[in-house]
# Entry
Amino acid sequence: MDFKCSDSGLWEEALSSYDARIEALNKPNLLSLDAFYRNELPLLLRQRNPNPYLTTSDLTKLMQWKLTRGKWRPRLLDFVSSLDDAVVKSASQAAFQSLPDVSKAVSELTVLKGVGPATASAVLAAYAPDVAPFMSDEAMQAAIGNSKDYTLKQYLVFVDKLQAKAKELTAMGVSFTPSDIERALWSCAMGVKLSASSKKPGGELENKSKRKRKR
# Structure
């Protein structure tokens, strides 16, 4: 499915395939981590009124989700798991209070060691999925043709694109958030990848996967 596609039915289909694609990846703990990220964490944040915040434990689990669903970078996990709880709480409170100014919100979070714009986007998407989508490689590639530039500037371009697409599809009578758009794009990309891998010999796929991890 092309990002320019205006068929809301195709977008709904891609989004509804998300859970199946998560399961099909067959990665250890990904199902439970995804359930935490999409269901438990947003609920926890809403319960921490009037000034919602993240704990170090929350951020560590969110990072595990991000790295398991995407590319594994263990050093990032080491960095965030060693952050002081009070520092994480203060930075996340400031970020959430900055919304809908996405640029300011990301900047508040990236003071934390190990947290770049992509991880900051995951934090913001958990709190405000209707404003800030997660900066996944797959959605970045689909929306702006670039999945290698993890800068704030690039993220803001990405946010604008996904917000506009969500508005376009919602105007057709089906409610979409920017985060729904990201998940649909990720799901679509995974569908293509899984379909291609099923046609290849196991050894060839496994070797390709190992080469990618070394980059």
In short: The chain has a mean pLDDT of 91.
